[in-house]
Structure formats: C-alpha cells, structure tokens
C-alpha cells in the first residue's frame, strides 16, 4: 500500500537554518565594514572587494564543474571567502592581487580537500598568506590614508616629517607611510628611537610619537577607521556592528572572540609597553582596535569548519590565537600577527578537539 | 520562585495555542477499537480472548507475559472480530485485538474504595499491575516495574512530569487544569509505594495557569511542591527533568533510582489514582488532536484503541490536505503512513501538518558549526556519532557516546546542514543492539 502521508523519522520540525542562510548573513554582517571602506577610499575599495568575491565564486564553480560535483556557489561560502580575502588587502593593491588570492584560497585552500566543511585551515587566510609570501611589497607597501585621516592614525605625524631634515629611509617611512601597528613595531627598536631623538634636536620625537599612539585622538581614529590599513579591517566600529549582529542572530558563538580579544587585552596591558612609556589602560585598546584583530576574532577565528567544536576547545583556541597574535606583534618579525595566529591555531584544531572531548551528562570521570 | 532548568536544549515554537484552550471532552464510544499487544516497553501481552468472544468494557483481554509486561483491557463492549497485525501508532505493523462495538458500552463493575490512601502497599501494587498501566508520556515503561526498585534502594523523591515540552501537545496541561486533585492523590499514592518523603511537580513556565492551579492544590501539603521550570526542550526527558528539579545527575547508563528519584508522568499518576481507588483498568486517556490543518483542535478523553482517523473526524476533519500525520509530538513522535491506527496508552497527541510543512530535508556536508554540540542535553558531540554510524564504524560511535543519546532530536532540529543527525544515531543504536544480540 502506498503511504498516504510523508513518512520520515523524527524530529519533524526544524529551526529553518541553512548553510546558505548562515553564509549570506555573515556577508551581510561585513557590509558595514565595506560601506566604511568605500567612504574612506572610494569605489576602488568596492571594486577590489567584489573582484575577490566574484573570483572566488567563479573559481569554485569551475572547479566543481571539473570535479563533476554539484555546483554549490549559491550557498555563499565562496563569496564570503573571496570577500574576506579582499578585506585583507589594502586599497592600493593592483586588481589582480585579490583575483589570484581568491583563486588560490578556493582551489588550494578548500576544493583540494573536498570543498565546504573539509578544509583544515581558513581558506581566506591561506590565500592571504600566499599573497604575502609571493608579493610581500605589494601587500605591505603603498598604504593609502583614509579620507580625513593619516595612515598611522596620528594626525600630525607626516607634518613633522617635512619639518625634519636628513631623515634615514626607515625614519621617513615611519613618519609618512606606516600603519599604527607599523609605528608601534618600529618604535620597539630602542636604538632607532634614540637616533631620531638625537636628530630631532632634543624634541624627544620618538617618545612623543610613542605616547601619541595611545592618545584618545588616535584611538578615536582607530575606532572609526580613518587610518591606513586593509580594506575591511580599519573601522572597529563597523566590525563591532557586524559582530553584534552575528552574535544576536546566534550565527557565531561568543567563546572564541571573547577569549581571543580578552587574551590580547590582558597580554598587551602587561607586555605592550615600551621603555619608560610603560603600560596604560589605553594600550590594550590600541591593540584591539589596530590591525585586523576585530576582523579576525569575529569573522575568521569563528569560521566553523576550522575551529574546535568542543566548548572547552573553543576557549583554548581563542586564548591560543590571542597569545600568538601578541607574540608576533611584540616579539616577531611582522607588525601584525592576526592571520598567522588563526592559521596556526586552525592546524591545532583536531588536536584540541581530541584533547577536550566532553564527558556525557552523568558520566563519572575515570 | 526562580525558574530552574538543565544545560543544553532548544526552544522550538511551542504551538500549543491550537488546542490549549480546549477543555477535555469525552469522545463518544467508537464503533471499533484496535488494542495493541505492544503498547509498552517489554514483552508483548498475550491474548486471552478468541475471535468471536463477547467482551465488556474494562475486561482483561490480554495478560502480561513476565515481569516487564502489562495486561490489556477492552475499552468498549462488543465482540472480538480480529486478532492480527494492524497499524501501530509507531507506524509499524504489529499484533492487535480488534473489537467491534455492540453499542451498549457495558462496563465491568468498579469499586470505590474509601480507604484507598491507607491500603497495603502490596495491594496498591497489585491494583496497578492489574490495571495494565505503563508510562503515558511516550516511552511506555511498565509502571509497576518502575515502582518496584530492588531491595535496599532508597527513594526519597517522586517527580511528577508535567513538563510536556513537546510542541503542540496539551493533553497533560489540560489534565493538570481539570483533574489536578486526582493527580495529586496519584502522587501521594506513588510516594507511599516507594517510601519517598517529598513530591515535586515539574511544570514549564509556558503553562502559568497550570502552575498556579497545582500550587493552590498543594498549598496545604507539607511535602509536595510545584517546581516551575524554564521553557526548554527536552525538559520532559527523565534525566533532564531530574537535574532541573533536584540538581541531581543520573549516572550515564543508570536509572533515576540511582539518585533516589522516581519520575512519573502526570497522566500516569492520574491512571494510578483511578486504578487504586476504583480498580479501574487503563482503558482511556487524554489525547490532543491538533495542528494548523485540524478544523477544531481538541483534547479528547478517548478509549485506548480508537482509530486516529475517527479522532480526526470528530475534530471536524482537516481544513486542507494533510502532508504528515504524527503520533506523539513533532520532536520525537512517529510519522504515520495513514490514520488507520489505534491509539495506545502512550498516545499523547495526533499532530497534523499541511503539505508545506511535510517536506524532506536536503542533507549537506557537515560544516562543523557545533550547534549540535551546544544544544545536546547529554553533552555529546552528535556529529561525530552520526558520522561514525554513517561510515559503519560502530565502535567509534559507541566511544563517542552512542548509548548515552536520549534521541531528543535537538541536534537535527538546529543543524544548518540539515543532516538527520538523530536519525543516524538511532540507526546506530538499532545496529548496536543487533550486534549485541548476535554476539550473545
């Protein structure tokens, strides 16, 4: 006898969520950051972002066609990967950069492993690492200041530069083309600070620059984003707006971002100070608003596939990301450490999961 | 009082508004009933009547076949017309006794024992056993067995389950509102039988009037109180309810008695009261017939064995095409191929979906979003177990907690990749049981 009604196993209801819904919601949460970028740098920011996103979509569709598997680009995950990749590139970059990066991210970062849900590390970050290794100068030089701001976030810094004679190339770069984190990094070189202090004829210029990094005015610039930086990372305000949306909609979970940012906060408070410019409560805020921390913590360290699924594991993951970020920023060779931290912790994810398997409810510890 | 609850869980739309306001109405004696021999967990009952026999309402027609088993009784008077396989409320085909009504609805003689609260415990148990009572919340464990813990087990608390956390269902809710006094008498009897010093009635906060009415009824009782609970599924699951109400954790693989608790559904407590006071067998129960497509959603006091199709007809039929018919609630109930099945002692609801709501899910790759992990009330990682079952790795599934899963379905409910997680896990449980049987 033919069944009169649909017969299937319980549960017979579902909350209506879907992968598509999740991915496009994350894209939506990135729109404020994109709007700010367009305001600061014009349509070129939009063009680069869309180039990244569409390149990823096309790459995924072609690879899936070639693999003879269903084409799933409508689920938004490739679009999101491409968009995030472009968000990690600055507006002065050539248009082929996000294109190449997106194709690499999708091809080598995701489809090689079997597509959505199988990639071991965040594809967008892998794409960025690839670009950084292949075209380091294109990725890290030629920062463009946002409309109404200075690249470093310190408004009178470049004016000082023109007033000073005979600057070394390093000092010139510091005063004219460095992002906030670059400035912080350069000033950790104490002999260099001594040198420009000497050149500036008793003005204690190095120390002045250092203290202006954590001044309210600079932090304000970092918060709103009228500085130099990657397309999607500059405005802390826009990113927090998007993050709040994702948290409220229950699309990302609080553990990873909280422990990531919390760790950065604590560590930068204790270890972020330089010389006599010791620690201050402004320092943690500088480290949280500068660079890609908020973009990373809320939008990339929360990538489902590449992060632990146990609750304890997510805490460890967040702390690990924070620790590595601070180590790279303060001790390592790069001014910024967010993307490498997340990539490294991605690699540890299976191990973390294995070590933090929960006990069933009511199970007694052996 | 502060609302208590348990870790994990979900908040499905409760959809109780369809039938919540409908007072319990008595279903008129049906023309025929199909009384299943497996309405409970344990050995099926054995028929003691033959085709052609005349039976009275309340007469025993099948007897228990062992300790973990219960008898069955005729729920109408008439003639046994068939003893054969018929559609069971779980959607499978199973042995049942069909009785055609003689229209007289003649009942066996009942008693009214004025001293029912003071009876010998052995006599109380005798009456519960004879009435054929099993858990009426769904699982259907023989009640007598549950009330007979091994010698030396100390039970200090009886929890009455008035949670009714399944969406749509309102039968327990209506029973608490309309038969509260009887339920409390039932609770007192259970407490006497197991020697418990306190009784707790757990009710979720979406039923404030049931909480208020029960609280009023127990106001003068020293050792019985109502515990309001935060709205959360699956709070009606035994281990979750025990934790919510008493903070005690039943050990994995263990029974509630291990923490000194016995849980009974409110409808079961009502049946126990009727069995001990009146020697009335369990031949009827309240069932919610509900859903968007039902013309007049109702809570019906209907004879066990009444066909679902007749219940729906009584509720004015369906407004539009039915896509799915669920016996029980939508989270753990069974989809029926047709409505020609006789309701059982555990049938708390018949929920009907329209064709739009009855769609099959499209399974995608797991994206490791961890939502199943966050909602699992048993603190498992459902996706690992489901995946192990999918790739036929039963050992790994067992290691990951296959046998701790209570099949509440929260994981499948929240999965954005729409993976039938609990369904895979259930398949794994069945395969594991088969393997265990074979290796014996």
Please, could you describe this protein's structure?
The complex is a heterodimer of chains A (366) and B (440). With 366 residues, chain A is mainly alpha-helical. Chain A folds into three domains: 19-140, no CATH class; 157-218, no CATH class; 252-355, no CATH class. Chain A is built from 18 helices and no strands. In chain A, helix 4 (96-107) packs across helix 5 (123-134). The longest helix of chain A is centred in the N-terminal third of the chain and has 25 residues, at 43-67. With 440 residues, chain B is of the alpha/beta class. Among the domains of chain B are: 116-278, NADH-ubiquinone oxidoreductase 51kDa subunit (Rossmann fold, 3-Layer(aba) Sandwich); 371-439, no CATH class. Chain B contains 13 helices and 17 strands. In chain B, the strands form four sheets. In chain B, strands 1-14-13-17-15-16 form a six-stranded mixed sheet. In chain B, strands 2-8-7-4 form a four-stranded antiparallel sheet, with no helix packed on it. Chain B is globular and about 60 Å long. At the A-B interface, helix 1 of A face strand 15, strand 16, helix 9, helix 12 and helix 13 of B.
């Amino acid at each position: 006898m033919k069944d009169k009604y649909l017969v299937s196993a319980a549960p017979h209801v579902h909350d209506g969520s879907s992968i598509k819904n999740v991915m496009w919601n994350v894209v939506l949460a990135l729109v404020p950051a994109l709007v700010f970028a367009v305001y600061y740098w014009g349509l070129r920011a939009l063009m680069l972002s869309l180039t990244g996103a569409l390149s990823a979509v096309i790459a995924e569709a072609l690879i899936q066609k070639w693999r003879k598997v269903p084409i799933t680009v409508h689920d938004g995950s490739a679009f999101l990967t491409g968009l995030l990749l472009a968000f990690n590139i600055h507006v002065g970059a050539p248009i082929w950069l996000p294109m190449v990066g997106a194709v690499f991210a999708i091809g080598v970062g995701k489809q090689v492993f079997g597509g959505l849900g199988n990639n071991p590390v965040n594809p967008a970050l892998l794409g960025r690492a690839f670009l950084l290794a292949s075209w380091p100068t294109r990725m890290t030089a030629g920062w463009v200041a946002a409309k109404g701001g200075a690249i470093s976030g310190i408004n009178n810094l470049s004016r000082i530069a023109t007033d000073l004679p005979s600057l070394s190339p390093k000092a010139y770069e510091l005063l004219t083309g460095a992002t906030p984190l670059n400035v912080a990094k350069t000033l950790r070189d104490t002999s260099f600070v001594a040198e420009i202090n000497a050149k500036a004829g008793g003005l204690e210029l190095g120390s002045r620059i250092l203290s202006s990094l954590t001044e309210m005015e600079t932090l304000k610039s970092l918060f709103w984003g009228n500085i130099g930086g990657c397309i999607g990372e500059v405005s802390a305000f826009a990113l927090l707006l998007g993050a709040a949306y994702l948290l409220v909609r229950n699309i990302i979970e609080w553990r990873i971002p909280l422990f990531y940012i919390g760790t950065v906060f604590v560590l930068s408070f204790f270890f972020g100070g330089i010389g006599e410019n010791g620690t201050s409560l402004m320092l943690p805020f500088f480290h949280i608003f500068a660079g890609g921390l908020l973009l990373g913590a809320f939008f990339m360290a929360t990538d489902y596939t590449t992060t632990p699924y146990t609750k304890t594991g997510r805490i460890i993951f967040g702390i690990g990301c924070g620790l590595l970020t601070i180590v790279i920023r303060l001790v390592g060779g790069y001014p910024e450490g967010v993307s490498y931290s997340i990539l490294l912790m991605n690699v540890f994810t299976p191990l973390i999961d294995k070590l933090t398997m929960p006990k069933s409810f009511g199970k007694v510890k052996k | 009082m502060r609302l208590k609850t348990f870790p994990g869980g979900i908040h499905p739309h409760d959809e109780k508004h369809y039938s919540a306001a409908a007072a319990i109405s008595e279903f008129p004696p049906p023309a025929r009933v199909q009384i299943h021999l497996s309405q409970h967990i344990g050995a099926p009952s054995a028929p003691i009547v033959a085709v052609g026999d005349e039976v009275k309402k309340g007469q025993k027609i099948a007897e228990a076949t062992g300790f973990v088993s219960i008898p069955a009784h005729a729920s109408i008077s008439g003639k046994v017309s068939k003893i054969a396989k018929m559609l069971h409320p779980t959607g499978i085909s199973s042995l049942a006794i069909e009785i055609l009504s003689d229209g007289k609805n003649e009942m066996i003689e009942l008693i009214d024992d004025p001293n029912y609260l003071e009876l010998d415990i052995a006599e109380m148990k005798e009456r519960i056993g004879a009435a054929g009572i099993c858990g009426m919340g769904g699982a259907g464990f023989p009640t007598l067995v549950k009330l007979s813990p091994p010698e030396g087990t100390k039970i200090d608390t009886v929890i009455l389950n008035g949670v009714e956390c399944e969406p749509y269902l309102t039968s327990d809710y209506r029973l608490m509102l309309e038969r509260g006094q009887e339920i409390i008498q039932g609770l007192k009897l259970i407490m006497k039988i197991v020697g418990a010093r306190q009784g707790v009635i757990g009710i979720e906060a979406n039923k404030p009037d049931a909480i208020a009415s029960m609280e009023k009824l127990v106001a003068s009782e020293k050792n019985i109180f109502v515990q309001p609970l935060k709205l959360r599924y699956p709070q009606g699951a035994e281990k979750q309810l025990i934790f919510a109400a008493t903070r005690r954790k039943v050990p994995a693989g263990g029974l509630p008695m291990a923490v000194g608790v016995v849980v009974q559904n409110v409808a079961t407590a009502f049946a126990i009261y009727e069995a001990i006071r009146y020697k009335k067998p369990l031949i009827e129960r309240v069932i919610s017939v509900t859903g968007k497509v039902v013309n007049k959603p109702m809570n019906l006091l209907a004879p066990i064995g009444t066909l679902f199709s007749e219940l729906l007809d009584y509720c004015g039929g369906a407004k539009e095409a039915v896509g799915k018919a669920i016996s029980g609630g939508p989270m753990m109930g069974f989809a029926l191929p047709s409505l020609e099945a006789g309701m059982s002692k555990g049938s708390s609801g018949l929920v009907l979906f329209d064709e739009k709501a009855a769609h099959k899910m499209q399974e995608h790759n797991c994206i490791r979003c961890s939502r199943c992990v966050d909602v699992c009330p048993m603190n498992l990682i459902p996706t690992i177990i489901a995946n192990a079952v999918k790739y036929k790795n039963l050992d790994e599934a067992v290691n990951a907690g296959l046998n701790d899963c209570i099949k509440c379905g929260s994981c499948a409910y929240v999965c954005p990749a729409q993976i039938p997680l609990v369904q895979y896990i259930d398949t794994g449980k069945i395969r594991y049981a088969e393997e265990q049987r074979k290796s014996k």
